Amino acid sequence: MTDSExxxxxxxxxxxxxxxxxYEHYRFTADKGQGLLRIDKFLIARMxxxxxxxxxxxxxxxxxxxxxxxxxxxYKVKPLDEISxxxxxPPREIELIPQDIPINIIYEDDDILLVNxxxxxxxHPGHGNYTGTLVxxxxxHFKDLPKQNEEAIKPGLVHRIDKNTSGILLIAKAELAQTRxxxxxxxxxxxxxxxxxxxxxxxEDQGTITGHIGxxxxxxxxxxxxxxxxYGKSAITHYxxxxxxxxxxxxxxxxxxxRTHQIRAHxxxxxxxxxxxxxxxxxxxxxxxxxxxxKQFVQNCFKACPxxxxxxxxxxxxxxxxxxxxxxxxxxxxxxxxxxEKWRHxxxxxxxxxxxxxxxxISEEPLN
Length: 368
Fold this sequence. Notes:
CATH topology of the largest domain: Pseudouridine synthase
Radius of gyration: 23 Å
Order of helices and strands: EEEEHHEEEEEEHEEEHEEEEEEHHEEH
CATH superfamily of the largest domain: Pseudouridine synthase
Distance between the termini: 39 Å
Structural class: alpha+beta
Number of strands: 21
Number of domains: 3
Oligomer: single chain
């Protein structure tokens, strides 16, 4: 018996993937009549597209579990053993062209590299974006580095943030490091914080949003929350309010899961779409007054931050080789700093100068 799950961006979302982990998770149950057999041979026979070296790296990383316990490659499979293996997702069969594209590398050693990605940059070549991506830039950056095991270093992706989200990304430079990091994401041992500006004045100072996230049944380009859990995958987002500006709120989000468009879909679900999020309805005035002056102010805010206001701010994890705790923080990029400063100034000086009152708020239309 076998079961598997793969988390990897789909082409029909056109590379717009928010903080999605990239790993494969397989489960097997040995038959009642299973004879004693080394687990690496057992798995190779059932995972024909996976190399023995990859499976042995998974065992070395502690990614092969039998009945809930990590085992070595020479473990002998027994009847009815419950076997689980987590692998880093294999790279796509796309020619990766080195390109001299400036990137902001905030940390690098022999095993990992962290980048503070700018908004507007696609992470990996794919449908409609075969060049100009972060991976193209990394291939160029790695080309002069010494080879590892007689092979050129290739970027090992373990998660992604979408094209118009800025912030910190973790990349593996060695297969073993990538395999260990994939397991950390699978086990939810990577701590991630995002900052976002959302429409409306969120009622609670902190809270948790739950609900399965899956592709919309009406529009496959959009993810939707299904509260009953009959469709999609379980998703959990914790948030707290950082600053209130009246008609918009600056929040911090902590992801417990990493589903496609998780933050964007969850906050639309609770009636607070991300500011200027075209896909989820945040690119129009949802809260505020009916005055022309206010409408012009919001249009100026859209121009200041011409993308959804979301930034992957911090990342904390255990180094896959040294086992030391690692923590990285990044400042809000210029467009989000300008945006929040505009709203901060407006909240302080303008809101109560206008003749409008809360009764003149623009009512929020249903977001289907």
